[in-house]
Amino acid sequence: MTTIPAIFFRNMRLLGILSILLSLITWGVDLADLVYHCPYCRMQRSVIGLLGILMLLPNPHHWLARYWAAVFGVLGLVVAATQHFNGWKKVFAGTFELGPNWYVNSFILSGFAILIIVGQLKLIHEGPHKDLAPAEPIPA
Questions:
Q1: Pairwise CA distance, residues 138 & 132, whole Å
Q2: CB 20 within 8 A of CB 131
Q3: pLDDT in tens for each of the 140 residues of the chain?
Q4: Could you give the CA distance from residue 102 to residue 108 in angstroms, rounded to a whole number?
Q5: C-alpha span between 103 and 111 (Å, rounded)
Q6: What is the rounded CA–CA span in Å between residue 55 and residue 60?
Q7: H-type helices in the chain, by residue range?
Q8: How far apart, in whole angstroms, are the C-alpha atoms of residue 140 and residue 105?
Q9: 105: how many CB neighbours lie within 10 A of its CB?
């Protein structure tokens, strides 16, 4: 039984396209020198894009797609969690500043990356499962 509403599975390809667009737009902003060249952010946006590509596959729930999703996802989550934890260290040390451009704060963005990557992994790994009980025999 899945915990994800069926609407997300019905729109999985759209969510995959949106993930790829998010990755490409953020890479474009980075390469245009509009933001700091953050290695953590680069890895997270790459993983979001790669998982988006896997979501476009004809069968994103195939064992091989799940395997690669796990590999990419774990890498992205470790990097995002490390960056997010560094933000929490600043919070508890009393040195955290949100700044005027709060929308490009790495602490906030890494939190969103964690949420996005976990959501993508759940969509790929859970899949729309059918009941595991055997089907009722058809009366003759």
A1: 18
A2: no
A3: 678 888 999 999 999 999 999 999 999 999 999 888 999 999 999 999 999 999 999 999 999 999 999 999 999 999 999 999 999 999 999 998 888 877 778 899 999 999 999 999 999 999 765 544 445 566 66
A4: 8
A5: 12
A6: 6
A7: 6-10, 12-31, 39-55, 63-93, 106-126
A8: 66
A9: 15
Tokens of 23: 């990755």
One-letter amino acid for residue 73 of the chain: G
Domain ranges within the chain, ordered by starting residue: 6-126
Residue 65 CB contacts under 8 Å (≥ 6 apart), including other chains: 54, 57, 59, 124
Q: Token pair for residue 76?
A: 């992205």
CA distance 65 to 30: 28
| pTM score of the predicted model | 0.86
Q: Which residue has the tokens 């508890």?
A: 92
Backbone angle region of 137, left / alpha / beta, with phi > 0 → left and psi within -120 to 50 → alpha: beta
Structural tokens at position 11: 């729109």
Q: What angle do CA 65, 7, 128 make, to 5 degrees?
A: 45
